[in-house]
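It is worth pausing here to work through a concrete case rather than discussing structure prediction in the abstract. The textbook approach is simple: state the sequence, then state the predicted structure, then interpret. We follow exactly that order.
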Amino acid sequence: MWPVVLRLLRLPRPRAADVFVLAAVGATLYVLLGAATSELRRLGPSVSIDLHPRALPGYAAMSLARMIMAYVLSLGVALVGGYAAARNPLLERILVPVLDVLQSIPILSFLPVVLLTMIALFPRQTLGLELASILLIFTGMVWNLAFSFYHSLLAIPEDLLEAVRMMRLSWWQRFTTLELPAAAIGLVWNSMMSWAGGWFFLMAEESFTLVNRSFTLPGLGSYLATASSRGDLRSVGYGLAALVGLIVLLDQLVWRPLVVWSRKFKIELTEQPVPQSSWFLDLLQGSRVLGWLHRHLWTPICEWIDRMMLSIGPKELKSTPTRPTTALAAVTAGAGVLIALGMVELGRILSRVPPPQWRQIAAGAAATTLRVGTSLLIAAAWTVPTGVAVGLRPSLARTVQPLVQIAASIPATALFPVVLLVLIRLGGGLEVASIVLMLLGSQWYVLFNTVAGAVGIPQDLREASALLRLRGWLWWRTLALPAIFPHLVTGGLTAQGGAWNASIVSEYVTFGGRTLRTLGLGALISSAAAEGDMPLLAASTVAMAGIVVVLNRTIWRRLARLAEERYHL
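Step two, the predicted structure:
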């Protein structure tokens, strides 16, 4: 009867790949819905974390669900914001500074506003805490995605844009056939970095402390935070093992297939001699059921979206307006009023900060700036050559990619006690350990963007450099560095934000019932958030954001313009 039923339904005969895919989907739904639902039922006003290993599958499901929702939100905001900034000069002058400021604000500085707002909207409900956790994860994911898409749009070759104008494509046709494909490689690698950043701060995103009151959500982050605060190294090991297993699973089932698939969007005239492969992507492409779903479900949905977007947009691509429309002017005016009111309230809060605390903030700002600069220099020294090697050698990428994802995703506060103990035994203290932890929180942004830039080097340029026998520094100066320069700017810009964010967990550490701190803005922000000192928290955050904005304007903005004007195909 089975072949008859398939023929009547016009469905293809299933293969082994189909059985595997359906089983994988069923298992995923069971874990996300079954285990997560059981954990939600146990939620109450005060959640106690079970450190037994049997609780880890449910906690992993809860953390994974939050990460997925935060990533979907981050990707949508990055696409809309990056596109608006790249295609409208007026919006660019507004959105880029906003991104600069927001990416420089640490997660703990977002915590009071986000947490109190969600609790006010959903009193006595865990939904408020869940939304707060998702928004905090979002604040760690969105910035590098937005900057990557924005810089990718600026680096599109001019001849391709001219071809689009000659073909009179609409904005939606240009977006789907040129702009999104041109940014695909950078988006895939920065998506991996966004997930790694979400895992990195997972303990701070699921276990909150505000005004001496603790808020805990069940998840891998709260499991690791509880084990670390109790000094239970065995439970910390169990939690890290579960996290590493989840990262490896996602690498094989999601990121590795996406990396291989995205290589078809390289702008080049010759094909790579040895294409990359992914066993799971090959399995999906060989599935008849998925092929049927693609033809009869996915393709009609995409065609319907195309028709809808073409009907609401301009029929033909025109030059980008440089003068504001009435609606945009009204929105800008409203935003200006809100900003003015916010600045007045911020000034009232800052007026309550005594002069001795301002001196502490100045000293802490100098110390943290020195640590951030040191960590960025160390990161660039090894990530640039490593990233180019990984991007140009697919065989090396197959081995290094999952290892890098694991290393980049291990939460900082879970790894930090081990690093601190080792450095104390070697004679170093928290001052040195904080630089190491900043390095762990920033170097991956440079590495992932360098790999994305190296992957995008056209094969014909690589062959030309081989024919010209370019070697050593001449090869780096004429091919490698110019080719990856736009991606290096994105990586350095976001790595700087990652280092400043890492300062909140590297300069103020709680382990085994003890609290260690060193001089720095991160320590001031962490202690102010824990004690509920809102004036000090606001003043430290403003100081950190101001320093980052100045650095972005004087260094990174000029480098971005140089990349746009000189170093692109």
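Step three, interpretation. Residues 19-266+275-286+354-565 form one domain. The two ends are 58 Å apart (CA to CA).
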